[in-house]
Amino acid sequence: TMDPSMFVNMVIRPPKNEYPEPNMGKTYDNTWGGKVYTIDSFWVPNAKGEKLSCSFVEPKDDKDRSGESMPCVIYMHGNAGNKTEGFEYAEGLLSKGMNLCVFDFSGCGNSEGQWVTLGHKEKDDLKVIVEYIYEHKRVSSIAFWGRSMGAVTSLLYLAENPGTANCMVLDSAFNNLDDVVVQLATQMGIPPEFVEMLKPQLEMAIQQQAGFKLADLQTGPAAAQCEVPVMFVHGSDDEFIVPAHSEKNMAAYGGPTKSMKTCAGDHNAPRSADVVKAAIEFLKANLS
What we know:
By secondary structure, the chain is α/β, with parallel strands linked by helices. It contains 9 helices and 9 strands.
């Protein structure tokens, strides 16, 4: 038999992916593409007072800025990831005149917090980050680039806060958590009928510990309320969140400018250079 608590933990307490961060609380310089950029790493408290680890990258020299205020891309990681993922896209974004903001969701990476809620409370983390950078950084407009939980968070947040972002790249967002839970169980070798039997127990444990219901996490209704240009991305070999999730989100999406790119690879595979390039060009075109 299956211990339900082990399964619950796979959903709300995946292993915390911590990393050394010697420059927290100060700025340091890094060179990408022959230009020098300043990385500012700082804490931003969320609504619960949990400190979120955040980094903001912009040109060191004002003469390298595309304007007094510059467009910014906020990159958001998946449930077992952290903000360092976003630095993979730094050179591509920075070279096109966009700044980059990355942060660890509460309960992830180096941020405080106990639970991961797959977008339910993460949307409130994003809200404080957006507010912080509009207030403290020279930002003209904002885009979201989210992967998995980060993509779900982008949709849930923007549905509640229209007008705060200009466009989004959404890589492998789920459409509903119910399907994901069944899929996760199947991957762990638990038969689907057993999952159905366990569901009330799972629901209760998740509700008690992390304060949300599986039914709270439907991204279709949120997608229907979003209107900014969007590019969906999905790995064609993703067996955890199958590509149909993105197809459903795209069908439900409210805005007229929407497209989907599939690329080889599974849920956690690095994205191909051509898909990354297309995403960066899409962001650039819709941020200016």
